[in-house]
Amino acid sequence: MSSPAWTIQKKRDGEELSSAEIHAFIKGLATGDVADYQATAFLMAVFFRGMSLGETVALTEAMLASGERYDLSSISGPKIDKHSTGGVGDKVSLILAPLAAACGLKVPMMSGRGLGHSGGTLDKLESIQNFDVRLSRERFEEELKLIGCSMIGQSATIAPADKKLYALRDVTATVECIPLIVASILSKKIAEGSDALVFDVKVGSGAFMKTRESALKLGRTLSQVSKKMGLKARVLLTDMNQPLGYAVGNSLEMIESIQVLRDQTPDELASGDLKELTIQLCAQMLELGGLARNTVDGRKLAHSKLTNGSAWKVFEEMVRFQGGSIEQIRNTALLPKTSKTVQWKAKKRGFIAKINTEAVGRLLVELGGGRKQAADTIDPAVGLVFHRKLGAKVANGEPIVTAHIPENADKTRLFELEAMFQGAVEISRARKPVPKLIIELF
C-alpha cells in the first residue's frame, strides 16, 4: 500500500489516484496515521489538480466508510432528503421537512450551522426554546417512524473523516473545490439513510457558487456521484441574488417559516419566492419517492397539505418531540426578539436593481446573528426584515428594510451598519429584469 506522501505526490503531479489509495489515505486520516499537515497538502493538491468522477466516488465512499451508517430499512415509506448549498434567508428546510412528511415521505434531515455569510438550519431551530438537535440514533429513528421527519445535527459517528477535512478546508482556502464539496455532502447524506436526494444548488451573489457555470458543474457532479452510489437524485439550480423570503436572522426566519406553514404571511411581507421554492422542492421529492406520478401532481399534493394545516400539525409534533416550546411557535411574539429596531431607507427614487446578498449575510454576522468562527455565540433576535426586493419601485426615503439590532448598539455603530447595508443595495432609474427563481432542473 502506498504511503501518504506518495499519494500526495501522485495527485500533486496530476495523476489519477486509485480507489485503494484514496481509501487508505482517508482511513489513515480517521485513525490519526495521516497527520494534519499531510491532509492539508492533499487538499491543496486536489484543489489545484481536481478529481475524476471515479476519484470523487472513491473519496465519498471512503469518507462514508470512516463512520457509522444508519439503516432505516425497518421504517416504512420512501426516505427522501433535501440538501441546499447554502445562502441568505434560506429557511426552506424548516417548512419543507414537515410538509414532505405530511405528504407521506420520511425525511431524515441532518443539518448544519451557519458559518460566514451563509445561515444554518440548526441555529434557526434553536431559536425555539429547548429545541434539541442532538437526538440519539434511537430517538431519531423513533421520530421518523412516529412523525415522518426529524431535524438534527450531524452525529459524532457520522463521517468523522469529513469533520477533520472540513475543518482543514475552512482554514486552508480549499472550500470551493467541487470534488471536496461533493464528497463532504454525500458522505453525510448517504450515512443518514436516505434513499434519494434533491439538491438545491444556489447560484448568485449570496451563494458559494457565483456563476451558473460553476453551479451547473457542482450540480452535475452531485447527481453523477449519487447515481454511482445507488441513490436517485434531482438537482435544481436556484437564484441567490437576493435573500429568500423577507427575513434574514434566526428568530425572524423562524417566524416567517411559521407564517408560511400556517398560511398567514402578511401581504406587505410577501414570501412568494420562499413558498414557491418549497413547493417545487417538495414536488420533486414526492416524484422521486413514488408518491406522485409527476411534479404537477406533486405540487398539487404539497400545496393542499400546506393550506389545509397538515404540514403545520407535523411541525408542531416535531417541535414537541424534540423538546421545543409549543407556546412559542403558537405565539411567535414569544420567540427571541430585540426591542431596538430602525428602518433603513432608499436614498433616492427608482428601482432596486441589485442586492449584494453575500454582503447582507455578512451584515447579519456584524449584527451578531452569525459566526465569524465556529465557536462564536449568536444572537437569535437580530436580523433584517425586507419590505422591498429586486425590481421593486421605491420613493426617496421609503423603507427598504427594518433592522432588528443589538440592544447595546450606539449611534456610531448604527451609522456603520447602515452604511454596510446601503453599500449592498443599488437603485437604478429603470427597472431591470428580476432573475428567475428556478434557473435549471435536471
Overview of the molecule:
Helix 1 packs parallel to helix 3 and helix 12 (272-288) packs across helix 13. With 442 residues, the chain is α/β, with parallel strands linked by helices. The protein has a 4-stranded mixed β-sheet, with helices on both faces. A 4-stranded antiparallel β-sheet has the order 6-9-11-7, with helices on both faces. Strands 10-8-12 form a 3-stranded antiparallel β-sheet. It is globular. 46% of the residues lie in helices and 14% in strands. It has helices spanning 4-12, 19-31, 36-49, 53-65, 92-102, 121-125, 137-146, 160-171, 178-191, 212-228, 250-261, 272-288, 295-307, 310-321, 326-330, 357-367, 411-424, and strands at 80-84, 107-111, 149-153, 196-203, 232-239, 247-248, 341-345, 350-355, 383-386, 393-394, 399-404, 425-428, 438-441. The chain is built from 17 helices and 13 strands. The two termini are 40 Å apart.
Distance between the termini: 40 Å
Mean pLDDT: 95
Strand order of the largest sheet: 1-4-5-13
State the helicity in percent bands: 40-55%
Number of H- or I-type helical stretches: 17
- Shape descriptor reads globular
- Spans of at least 5 consecutive residues with low confidence: none
- Helix and strand content put the structural class at alpha/beta
| Biggest beta sheet attributes | 4 strands, mixed
Give the oligomer, counting copies of the same chain as homo and different chains as hetero: single chain
Share in β-strands: 5-15%
Q: Give the SSE order as H and E letters.
A: HHHHEHEHHEHHEHEEHHHHHEEHEEEHEE
Number of strands: 13
Rg, nearest Å: 22 Å
